[in-house]
Amino acid sequence: MMIFWLVAALLIVATLLFLLPPLIKSRESEDALARDELNLTIFKDQMKELEADLAAGVLTADQYDVARQDLERDFLHDSGEEAGKGAGQSDRIVGRAAAVVILVLVPVLAVSIYGLLGAGAAGLDPESVRPDVQAEGHQGTLEEQIAMLQEHLQNNPEDAEGWLMLARSYYFMKDFAAASKVYERASALVQDSDPNLLADWADAAAMAQNRQMAGKPYELAKKALSLQPFHQKALWLAGTAAFQAEDYNTTLEYWQRLVQLFPEGSENHVQMQRNIDEIKSMLASVGDVRTAPAAAPEAAGASSTEGVSLHGVVRLSDDLKDRVSPEQVVFVYARAPSGPRMPLAIVRKQVKDLPLTFTLDDSTAMMPAMKLSSFPQVMVGARISQSGNAISQSGDLEVVMGPVDVESSGNLELVIDSVVP
To answer: Partners of 139 in the beta sheet?
Structure first.
């Protein structure tokens, strides 16, 4: 409140400083200066005429001296302080009177007009009222909206969207425990089928226990990922949970998936890559980086699926070349023919790399538990992402082939020739 009135006072003072000086300042000196300049000009012209008459012989030297003395005397008389004295005095009186009127009226009018046309009593004391919140065409404070929503849900307990809105309102109010309980109610109504709801519930549950992801929050994040493996918020929460549990290898798995959702070179991509590099450094420092061990010579043929790989080349159809730019991301992947669409193996390149030769094997797996070698048949695809995200979106360019036999696929040729509707 104090800052508001201080700023208002400064603005009024600035206005007065602009208006008052011209009125208070006497115009006598300005008028005198103008008269003096005019008299000086006339005096110079008359002196030139006298000099011209003297040179032409019209005036004698004595006559010239007398006339010059008369001109000088008139010039000094006209430039005296008495000229315009009465008018200057009158101007000073009017100017000062106007200054007094403005000095009084400007502050009074400013405050009065603001109180009338600005915000009334609330504008003059902005801290005395709380802002109203508008939602769904209704007006009122957030507390009033929550009360109305609670009343609505008492009469419509099966309104999942209403419960979801109430949970978000509690979260906004920082009542995380209440938000978590309401998210649970909403999730039960949709039978835990919404990954967005589950991720938001995990967030609220973690905030309710002082930002700790252990227990229920972690379970919810993993459940969201089972529905949508590349859910951005769920990946972040799950990675945070693993990090808090000091399970850095699992953290690395989640964050390596998460970084693929951000366009390369973006702020999020750069920051996530820094986090990944930091985790790798931590693991390397203790010698705990999980890598697939090389197969011993005697065990080279122990399993028919160990060491399998898919090879091929990816090209772009000539008809679609004018729809892409060199820096756009290209994903080449293999996934299971049925079930979750999460890639079993994936590589990331750019359009400028096309045509490119690719190899997909267990070293390019996204998760150790889901490897290419675990499936006899897979779908193989390539996609140019318009957004840089690993999740397919409308407008992306793609090709999908399969199912193909993992062990006897030979060299595959993928031609990106269709647009995702």
So the answer is: 134
146 lies in the same domain as 118? no
β-strand pairing of 133-135 with 138-140: antiparallel
Please report whether residue 103 resides in a domain.
yes
- Is residue 293 in a domain? no
Strand order in the sheet with 411-416: 356-361, 309-316, 411-416
Number of domains in the chain: 3
Residue 25 and residue 95 in contact, taking contact as beta carbons nearer than 8 Å = yes
Q: What is the pLDDT of residue 153?
A: 85
Q: What is the pTM of this model?
A: 0.42
Of the candidate ranges 97-101, 132-136, 269-273, the one whose mean pLDDT is the lowest = 132-136
Q: Does any domain span residue 32?
A: yes
Helix/strand/coil (H, E, C) string of the chain? CHHHHHHHHHHHHHHHHHHHHHHHCCCHHHHHHHHHHHHHHHHHHHHHHHHHHHHHCCCCHHHHHHHHHHHHHHHHHHCCCCCCHHHHHHHHHHHHHHHHHHHHHHHHHHHHHHHHHHCHHHHHCHHHCCCCEEECCEEECHHHHHHHHHHHHHHCCCCHHHHHHHHHHHHHCCCHHHHHHHHHHHHHHCCCCCHHHHHHHHHHHHHHCCCCCCCHHHHHHHHHHHHCCCCHHHHHHHHHHHHHCCCHHHHHHHHHHHHHHCCCCCHHHHHHHHHHHHHHHHHHHCCCCCCCCCCCHHHCCCCCCCCCEEEEEEEECHHHHHHCCCCCEEEEEEECCCCCCCCCEEEEEEHHHCCEEEEEEHHHECECCECHHHCCEEEEEEEEECCCCCCCCCCCEEEEEEEEECCCCCEEEEEECEECC
First to last CA, the chain: 55
Q: Is the pLDDT of residue 237 over 90?
A: yes
In a domain, 296, yes or no: no
In 104-190, beta strands by DSSP E: 133-135, 138-140
Element (H, E) at 314: strand 309-316
Residue 108 lies in domain: 2-124
Identify whether the C-beta of residue 398 lies closer than 8 Å to the C-beta of residue 392. yes
User: Do 197 and 144 fall into the same domain?
Assistant: yes
Alpha carbon distance 214, 219 (integer Å): 8
